[in-house]
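Sanity check

After download, print the first record. It should look like this:
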Amino acid sequence: MEEAEFKSGFVTLIGRTNVGKSTLINLLVGEKVAGISSKVQTTRTAIKGIVNRKNSQIIFTDTPGIHKPKTKLNQTMIETSFGSLQDTDIILFLIEATSENIGKGDSIILEKIKEANKKTILIINKIDLVKRENLLKLIDIYRKEYNFEAVIPISATNKKYKEIILKEIEKNLKPGPAYYDIDEYTDQTLRQLAEETIREKALKLLQDEVPHGIYVEVEKLKTRKNKQNENIYDIEATIYCLRESHKGIIIGKNGEMLKKIGRMARIDMEENFGVKINLKTWVKVNEDWQSNDSIVNKFKLK
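Expected structure tokens:
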């Protein structure tokens, strides 16, 4: 039997904030690539996750969630999301099963998909929260709006949907080369992954009013051998926040909150990087960072 032709391509995942994009990309890639949080706007940059299969290589981009921009940073995040639709091969449009019709945010995304005129797979997440007849109604509404290659209802936390989605993507890819080494699962640097991990833990642990006023910068990342001749990474990171009062919350009583963030981030990084981590974190106030071009530019699509 003749071996199937190798296929490859770029897949952009788009959707409103908090629909489960990061959870889905982590499921599809099989490694922890995107920060997951129940708070909106977790993903700020277009993170690429790479899936290597027997006859294909799929490169995923997880875009920032679509929301109403209030700052220069928010505007940049939205430009990143829509900009990525122009040079992708396939779009995965993620919506929530709990919607009864096409809401304002999804409507804006749908218009951008129509403009891009790319092959699009509609993924309906959180199907465990709705009745079958409601789901069928929603599918019907969306099918009338755009000629989707496929509509796949899922629960992004359930591994059984991984293969269904990957097979559908593969079916729609064109023959092409492997763009990345087969051992890679993301093109992010370790520094970016470390920043993303620390920020994710802060989002998880902090009060609602603080998290989206923070960004993390890794100032030092060095590798060395310990006494047992094992590799160890020394990472020094600063968590920047908007207000002095936020700084107190992030540090916590007797530094407990900061220690907790650091401990959770270290455990996660050790698991993902496969090496021991020595992590040191600091907190600083930078009141106007969301309007600072040099910082905001970091979140632009590379």
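If your output differs, re-run the checksum step. Summary of this record's structure: The longest helix spans residues 256-273.
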